[in-house]
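Notebook entry, cofactor series.
This is the third protein in the set we're modelling with a bound small molecule. For this one the ligand is zinc ion. I'm keeping the input format identical across the series so the outputs can be compared line by line later. Sequence and SMILES below, as received.
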Amino acid sequence: MIYLIPPGGNIFSVMVRIRMHDQGPKKNSLQTSHFPTSFLSENPIPDSSDLLWTQEDLTYFRYPNLSLHPGLVHGVFTRRGGVSDPPYDSLNSAYTVADRPANVTANLNKIKKAIGAEQLMFMTQAHGENILVLRQDNFGSHSEVPPADAMITDMPRIALMVKQADCQGIIIFDPEKEVVANVHCGWRGNVQNILGNVVVRMKRDFDCRPSGLLAAVGPSLGPCCAEFLSHENIFPRHFDPFMVRENYFDLWAISCWQLVSAGLKRENIELSGICTRCRTDMFYSYRAEGVTGRFATVAMLR
Ligand SMILES: [Zn+2]
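Returned structure with ligand:
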């Protein structure tokens, strides 16, 4: 219904604006006096987003806010267009899920080619707090870097890739300083506020101004499907206002709130509004599928 993408054409001519509809509950219904509640009432999650879909060899989309800046290349790839067999079908980007390594390599080469990257950097994602800052003076020759969940760089033509199946891939871009971050953020990342920590590092290491940063939150577990039965044990109390119904949380709104708390402007944050668990036809979902692949979010300075 929403993924009608015309085939063929060149990479810039077939971008199509398609309205994406959120399948989940629209708003937080709780009335408490925490700061997040006022944040939510002032910043309702939009029920649709205009994503720029491209189908060349691979299908991917770009975010409208990030696409305005020629200094940044980015794309959120789907699970389509790769060579992996079920249950990793087909554009699996992760070596860590028992897919055939040769297939993963072929998939990564396709992604690299689509983005036009010299090198594709990705992490051993660990749901931790480690943030990698990649600069000319510390840049090694290996494409796989140590356990970490966020990368920040000011180096051009080095594509930062995050792999997901329900977790959020979040791109943060500074168009003034030309610095980009790509963050892997699951619920543990939200609990640790990795987004806030990345913004602090961008500020400290690159003199970025948080109010000038742009961000985009990718396809991931939506409020329709983010059930946490043990939330009382794993979430801090200030997440309570983000509970949309019993045991279900709006992790998109939590990320948005954490970015705003770090100094970003709400209007500079884009949400894809796509729930991975609801859309396994397009994306991988760990919750829906268990053994499955990981799709890729990629960002690169030109
Ligand atoms: Zn869902």
